[in-house]
Amino acid sequence: MFFRTKDLQYNARPERPDPIFAKQLQEVLGGQWGEISVMMSYLFQGWNCRGPAKYRDMILDIGTEEMAHVEMLATMIARLLETSPVEVQEEAAQSSSVVGSVLGGGDTQEAILAGMNPQHVIVTGGGAAPTDSQGYPWNSRYTIASGNLLADFRYNVTAESQGRLQVCRLYQMTDDPGVRDMLSFLIARDTMHQNQWLAAIEELEKDGLEETPVPSNFPQEREFSQVAYKYMNFSEGTESEQGRWASGPSVDGKGEFEYVADPRPLGERVEELAQVDPRLYGTPKRPMPPESS
């Protein structure tokens, strides 16, 4: 059960409108690595969690926080789109080095409008949308909730890393102190969340619930064990042989890494496939006989 308060988790007020940056900010709202994606992933991971209660509680804590981040970004985008006559758009464009380079120094109405997301005017009426910076709609396929906590937590580290990377890039693309203030908060929370998921991975392994390789309860004797710990060099050069992954004990402690400089095929040679059902109208293996009259 969720209750909303009127207080944002942190400030989301720009110093001035900037419809072009509003379009760019859409990426970390509705993009593949945006806040909607992590919000939905964490909530479904928590709702589906069958592990110890501490994991379910932790996952839903962070999932609920991500709702707050979605609201902050949506609020910021809406405020960046407030009162955007041509004069304000020109001021916003001239204040951004990124926009200036895109526009080639021009500040005409047409060029500025071209840098905006037209859906912010036509579809949302000056509000945020569940889309990325190119207008592509957020997709539930971005939601990751597999039921295996170690697999999910590793994905979560990746999601927080990609999200923090994109927010840091956006921070450099604006000089608006209000926008930077909010972004600095999100960057800091992503720092915590990366550390949080790494700590949760350690906890899972310490509790003996999961370990590498995932899933750890699949019997490894059913693997084709001859290749389980071989590093295969499938590119020109042998620089990869110098890595930790090429020799020595495996990370899971269950094998020994072996470097294979010139891997050879282990499968059968395929010369041709069998004929497909003729009702599928593929190209036959031989000329079709003439139809009888």
TrEMBL record:
Mn(2+) 1 binds at residues 35, 69, 160, 193. Mn(2+) 2 binds at residue 66. Residues 262-293 are annotated as: Disordered. One of its GO terms (molecular function) is metal ion binding. Pfam families: Mn_catalase. Ca(2+) binds at residues 57, 61, 233, 235, 237. InterPro entries: Ferritin-like (IPR012347), Ferritin-like_SF (IPR009078), Mn_catalase (IPR007760), Mn_catalase_dom (IPR039377). Binds 1 Ca(2+) ion per subunit. Binds 2 manganese ions per subunit. Gene3D superfamilies: 1.20.1260.10. This is Manganese catalase. It comes from Rubrobacter xylanophilus.
